[in-house]
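Bit of a strange request maybe. I'm writing a small parser for structure token strings and I need a real example to test against, not something I typed by hand. Could someone generate the tokens for this chain?
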Amino acid sequence: MATDHAPPPSSPSAHETPLRVLLPQVLPALVVGVGAALLFLGISALSEEFQGVLWHDLPDALGIGGYSSLWIITMLTATGIAVGLVIWKVPGHAGPDPASEGLGGAPLAPVVVPGLLLASALGLAGGVSLGPENPIIASNIALAYWLGRKAAPAMPGAVWVSLATAATIGALFGTPVAAALVISEALAGQPGPGSLWDRLFAPLVAAGAGAMTTQLLAEPSFDVGLPPLTDPGWGDLLAALVIASAAAVFGLAACYLFPYVHAAFQRLRHPMVMLPLGGLVLGLLGALGGPLTLFKGLEQVKELTSSIGGWSSGELAKFAAIKLLALLVAASCGFRGGRIFPAVFIGAAFGLLAQALVPEVHPAVAVSSAVLGVLLATTRQGWISLFTGAVLAASPAMLALLCLASLPAWLIVTGRPQLELDKHGHALR
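Reply from user aminoacidic:
Good idea to test on real output. This should exercise your parser:
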């Protein structure tokens, strides 16, 4: 996540008390938090409505199976054409190449935001294997920075960037905890005067406002119905260590392939060639993997875990491999979206595969550990990986196991290529 250049508000100086510095930040943080959540909820609702039209209403009207192989291929190719047109013709071209952009970043020009949101909504509705997090955070940063600098020019621009980042992460996960972890991780590389909690104060207010707005209007839930782990033992710890490490290796496969797949699409140069071809490839993968391998993946994870024991190991291996390839292609050919939610599906399928091969492994241990490993490989964000794995299990007993399982998995991924490129197309490490 590219949050290192967007520090939270600065600490109070020697001539100012913390109270006098922090209190004026509350109102801007609340406004940014609510506004960021409303934008996220609005784009999510719009894309869900459009998804219903594309995948249910339209095929029903035509007398075609909504998830037939032919319809999947047609819809993903059409989505590639639509997004390609947005990137080609809409002012701002929907922002820079997402392959070289992390979660957050420097503020984009306001003119970029409409195209970026439109391209993201089309991809979400059309079944592309990317989530909403990157475009929504980038859009909220651009709007908060632009409007904030106009409303309060005396406030540093980095303040608005950090507030928008924290607010959107809080809204996405429905809790400020994830934002606190991400911002704290960013602060680790930015030593400065003053208390950590002074610097976290305003971002936490924004994250709390964003999370509460989402909770009140949408009731988000990451509960995927896994049976709770109540009494972990040494066998559970061993399973968590092995599965998290194996899942990290699996996720690294996409990271190693990423520069080559991206370079192959870049040789096509024009978005009206890159995106339709990418959509066609995604359609073929979707036809092979079935409906569960489409879209951002969170609802599909719930469907996957609702039938534990009902999937064969071959089916689960297919789901994990197809979704990994779909994420790789979608991130390489220019679709606008994030990688966290598809990575969660990949991890869930990989974990259930491990549980199918060794039925003695507890499902919560298998799924949470695998999600942790895949997220560590694809995001390199330790705290957000731990948080996501723990919240999926909805079991406090899993937290200690995941903390320990993250250690060998981190040794595997650290220093390896990331699922993000530099401006020259080389993998970050």
